[in-house]
Design a protein that fits this description.
77% of the residues lie in helices and 0% in strands. The protein is mainly α and 425 residues long. The protein has a single domain (8-192, 212-414), classed as Up-down Bundle (Growth Hormone, Chain: A), CATH 1.20.1250.20. The longest helix has 34 residues, at 8-41.
């Protein structure tokens, strides 16, 4: 745009990046804590996985309502509330003595806190603050999930090995409380709050959608979305994405490494390495999404992911060499799906509604993650290893790589979406 100074949109991106980074680190923490909790309390992996699955499920189901609540009360307030709830849930879990308490705190309190911002915050910020470079911004904010994993997971693993699992949850709570301060001071809801236009905006600025009845708006979106075949194709592919990433690898790779005689710190380092590669993969995917049909990208992403999961059980026999190869291959692909999914959602359902529709699509992502987080723990208890879980998830990814080619509206030329829901009210 030829601006003489930095557009405040990039400050908003930086604050959003840090918030998503912190949330992602806390979301990945249970992978470090499963074995220590099993040792400390004698709970089965299926029981602990139920708490992890509850967290993923609640996080996802909050997404569509979070988008509507953001429209009503503002992004800044929701970000602060999100961080404080995460601090309460994680800090309180240091005092648990029974499994149901862990489920309530991880699944309920922390899940709600994460759900207020994690899945829909990036699309909301991109759609409000940017008229151009949205694909790049989504890629950058998606990469924040990888950065959180990269920075915090090895630190959490080292902290647990030295001071115990309670130190992990208490440190996470402290970081969340500290981050709430710059969010409250620097975050802004819309460019108009600063007397600005969205970055790259050359035409008239569309008025914001109605902020009334946030829960009613979310349910109206679901009603309209349920009649769309493309919604189920996009959401179904994202279901598989959640099942194969946060549900399986994010939750169970470290315990799988322990089963193979590999230390949890090494397993956490592998996940962190994937995080480093995720930053590259997600950002580059955002750049590609501005230039290539999103359906083509998704077909490749899911196909390669499926093949890597099918190979994973056989790579353990090569110890760190095989697992490092998997980490490189899988890491580049992990969250590269988000920018094309957001692009398809905007193309099919309209830029103004993208946060609401993506909220429900993200809910399907988290349902997939929750289901596999729990079922993989059950299968491991029944079979003694994770091979069946890796194979099933790999086959699901190959199916998704075919299904995404049937979605309409993946090209680069915008197609008209439905009228903003506010008009229907």
């Amino acid at each position: 745009m030829g601006l003489r100074r930095l557009h405040y949109a990039w400050v908003v991106v930086a604050i959003t990046f840090l918030t998503v980074l912190m949330t992602a680190g806390m979301r990945a923490a249970p992978g470090v804590l499963i074995v220590p909790l099993q040792d400390a309390f004698g709970w089965s992996r299926a029981t602990i996985s139920a708490a992890v699955g509850a967290n993923i499920l609640v996080l996802g189901m909050m997404g569509p309502f979070a988008a509507a609540i953001m429209d009503r009360f503002g992004i800044r307030r929701m970000m602060v509330a999100s961080l404080l709830l995460m601090a309460l849930g994680m800090g309180g879990s240091a005092l648990v003595t029974q499994a149901w308490q862990l489920i309530v705190l991880w699944g309920g309190v922390t899940g709600v806190g994460m759900g207020l911002c994690f899945m829909v915050l990036g699309p909301q910020v991109a759609s409000r603050w940017f008229a151009s470079r949205r694909g790049l911004v989504i890629g950058i904010l998606t990469a924040a999930t990888a950065t959180g994993q990269l920075l915090l997971l090895p630190a959490f693993a080292a902290l647990e090995s030295r001071l115990g699992w309670q130190a992990v949850v208490l440190s996470a709570a402290g970081i969340a409380c500290a981050l709430a301060i710059p969010v409250a001071l620097l975050m802004r809801d819309r460019p108009a709050d600063m007397g600005l236009r969205p970055y790259g905006q050359v035409g008239p600025v569309a008025p914001p959608a109605s902020a009334a009845h946030p829960f009613r708006r979310a349910l109206l979106v679901l009603r309209d979305a349920a009649s769309s075949r493309d919604f189920w194709l996009i959401g179904g592919s994202y279901f598989v994405c959640g099942a194969s990433t946060s549900g399986l690898i994010g939750t169970h790779l470290i315990p799988a490494c322990v089963d193979e005689g590999i230390s949890p710190v090494v397993g956490a380092s592998l996940l962190a390495g994937m995080g480093a590669l995720n930053i590259v993969g997600a950002t580059f995917s955002g750049w590609l999404t501005d230039r290539i049909d999103a359906r083509v990208l998704l077909a490749w992403y899911f196909g390669l992911r499926g093949l890597s999961l099918l190979a994973l059980p056989y790579l353990f026999q090569y110890d760190l060499l095989g697992l490092t190869g998997f980490a490189v291959f899988y890491g580049l692909d992990w969250i590269a799906t988000a920018p094309p999914i957001v692009r398809l959602t905007a193309r099919r359902f309209g830029e103004e509604n993208v946060g609401m529709y993506f909220g429900w699509i993200s809910a399907l992502h988290q349902i997939g993650g929750a289901g596999v987080a729990y079922s993989a723990g059950l299968l491991r208890g029944a079979t003694g290893d994770y091979q069946a879980s890796f194979m099933i998830s790999g086959l699901l990814c190959l199916g998704a790589s075919i299904a995404v080619t049937w979605i309409r509206g993946g090209g680069l030329v915008a197609r008209p979406g439905p009228a903003p829901l506010a008009a229907a009210e």
